[in-house]
Amino acid sequence: MKKAVVILSGGLDSTTCMGIARDQGYDIYPITFDYGQRQKREIENARQVAAYYHTAGRHKVISLGFLKEFGGSALTDESIDVPEAGHMGPVDSDIPITYVPGRNLLFLSIATSYAEVIGAEAIYIGVNALDYSGYPDCRPEFIRKVEEVMALATRVGVEGGPIRIETPLIHWTKAEIIREGNRLEVPYHLTTSCYNGQEKACGVCDSCRLRLKGFEENGSKDPIPYRV
């Protein structure tokens, strides 16, 4: 059976990628990163999602704690507040303070190593260029360049069988992502998207706002609890 590594954060997008990879016939090998993020709950959510898809035994949780030492992001540096805004306010068009420098580059590099070891032909990552157009490591051109480097830096690439990066959500709206996830019966009740990492999602950070807006536009109800 063909294999795929899925970069699984425990959030809505990466869990949808799990469902898509399974639907496309892949044997799934999830990998989750503990990079010092303040929303530690998502790691437990990732474990629950892995168990739901019967992949808990092969689920890897990799520590990248040095990103917290670097700081520079509201997700890893507790001296920087997670931005909040009114429910109807626009999402910032500039690079948000929630951007974690080098995160996806590191994730894909390590996932490539895992994929080559287990003989996977693809890596699924839930990047999206619409929700956060300011994130430089969520752009299609970034993905293409990393694929080029992977082909040069791996034995399978040099031998003519490069590992592909699959980004099925990259041009979808949040509503479109949720619609596909509902079709595939993705377990959104096991996911979290909140940047603050509390027992209940805050409902006011950009990630919560985008998620709630996506469910509303899709005409469905978000199954997780919210503080606001």
Describe the 3D structure:
38% of the residues lie in helices and 10% in strands. A five-stranded parallel beta sheet has the order 3-2-1-4-5, with helices on both faces. The model is unreliable at 86-92 (pLDDT under 50). Helix 1 (12-23) packs across helix 7 (174-183). The protein has helices at 12-23, 41-52, 66-70, 103-118, 140-153, 155-158, 174-183, 206-218; strands at 3-7, 27-34, 60-63, 122-124, 164-166.
The average pLDDT value, as a whole number, equals 92
Number of helices: 8
Question: Helical percent range?
Answer: 25-40%
Q: Low-confidence parts lasting 5 or more residues at pLDDT below 50?
A: 86-92
The largest pleated sheet is described as:
5 strands, parallel
Measured on Cα atoms, how large is the radius of gyration?
17 Å
Proportion of β residues?
5-15%
Alpha-carbon distance between the termini?
44 Å
Largest sheet, order of strands side by side? 3-2-1-4-5
- Based on secondary structure, the structural category is alpha/beta
* Outline: globular
Number of strands: 5
Please provide the ordered H/E string of secondary-structure elements: EHEHEHHEHHEHH
Task: Write a brief caption for the model.
The protein has 228 residues and is an alpha/beta fold. The chain has helices at 12-23, 41-52, 66-70, 103-118, 140-153, 155-158, 174-183, 206-218; strands at 3-7, 27-34, 60-63, 122-124, 164-166.
List keywords for this structure.
228 residues; alpha/beta; 8 helices; 38% helix
Task: Please give the structural blueprint.
Elements: E1 3-7, H1 12-23, E2 27-34, H2 41-52, E3 60-63, H3 66-70, H4 103-118, E4 122-124, H5 140-153, H6 155-158, E5 164-166, H7 174-183, H8 206-218
Parallel strand pairs: 1-2, 1-4, 2-3, 4-5
Helix pairs in contact: 1-7, 7-8
